[in-house]
C-alpha cells in the first residue's frame, strides 16, 4: 500500500467511526469539500500536511493520532 492510499483509508475510517459525511468533515475542517474529495478519489496524489492537519483539527485529533496506525507503520519507502 502507498502513503496516499493509507491517508485515504484513514480519513474514511475516521468519518465512519464518527458517523459523518465527507461534506460534514469539510465543514468541521474549514476546507472546501473538493479538497477532501480530491484526496479520497485520487486526484490529489500528494496531499499537503497542512490539509491533513486541518482534517485532524476538524476531527479533534492530533497528527500523531491520525498517523498512529498499523497501516502507516507498515509503509515501505516510496521512490518517485
Please tell me how large the radius of gyration is. 12 Å
Strand content: under 5%
For the terminal residues, how far apart are their CA atoms?
Answer: 15 Å
Number of strands: 0
- What does the main sheet amount to? none
Structural class: mainly alpha
Account of the protein in words:
With 80 residues, the protein is an all-alpha fold. It has helices at residues 3-18, 22-29, 33-40, 49-59, 63-67, 70-73. Helix 2 (22-29) crosses helix 3. It is globular, with a radius of gyration of 12 Å.
Short description:
Helix content is 65%, strand content 0%.
Provide the descriptors you would attach to this structure in a database record.
80 residues, mainly alpha, globular
What order do the helices and strands come in, and which of them pair?
Elements: H1 3-18, H2 22-29, H3 33-40, H4 49-59, H5 63-67, H6 70-73
